[in-house]
Amino acid sequence: MARIEKLSVELEAVELINIIRGLFDYSFRQLSDTLGIPESVLCRYANGDILPSAETASNIVRKLEAELELPRLMPMLIKNKGDYIDLSNVIFNPYVLKLYERRVSKLFGQSDITSVVTVATDGIPLAVVAASALRARLTIAKQYKDAGFEEFYESSYIVDSPPRRTSIYLPKDLLGRKDKVLIVDDIMRSGRTIDALLNIIRQAGASIGGFSILVARRNGVLDFIKEKINAPIDVLHLQ
């Protein structure tokens, strides 16, 4: 293993130690029971005083990745309030966002994504993290025309509450034929928002590199998109 690879694994292990402690409020004693590493050593790892060896780091990463798989965690993080799905424990939790960044990088890091596209506003934290993970441009479609731009792609869709047609706009300067797009969405209910984004991407002549969706309803819409678009779709939770 090359020196840079060893260092990368060692730093990854330290990051996962701090993520699992922050996410679950684990003590070093609890973590010691999981990893079989003395509390005092784990404390020094977490504080950055020392780094684990490459072999120890690989074992830490393997064990903690199994504990921190996002699809496994999602049912614990989501709150259902009638028809409303509360994702605040996901999109406002820095530890969860770090895990999301790792997942996006792993699944789409070799896809040559140049632009991460979402619709304002709830998907923005996820899109920011995804763009950072992929070193791609962050592109946000909004329900108004941003000042400073002259030409826009436009698409519209129906929202249910209250029932109305709404339009979204994306500056033409931010998306073009050479772009490969990752679409990010927090909740896919009817698929109308995704369809509106796909319309804008078609107008721009860009290609679809994939979809990253936190929660999708079990209503057949996801299957429709899979049939319609030949691109990887990552859904963290079906509901």
Automatic annotation (TrEMBL):
InterPro entries noted in UniProt:
Cro/C1-type_HTH, Lambda_DNA-bd_dom_sf, PRTase-like, PRTase_dom, Pur/Pyrimidine_PRTase
Q: Which GO biological process entries does UniProt record here?
A: purine ribonucleoside salvage
Q: Which SUPFAM superfamilies match?
A: lambda repressor-like DNA-binding domains, PRTase-like
Q: Which UniProt keywords apply?
A: Glycosyltransferase, Purine salvage, Transferase
UniProt entry tagged with the keyword Nucleotidyltransferase = no
Q: Which Pfam families match?
A: Pribosyltran (PF00156)
Give this protein's Gene Ontology molecular function annotations.
Answer: DNA binding; glycosyltransferase activity
Q: Which residues does the UniProt record annotate as the domain Phosphoribosyltransferase?
A: 111-221
Q: Which Gene3D superfamilies match?
A: 3.40.50.2020
Entry protein name: Phosphoribosyltransferase
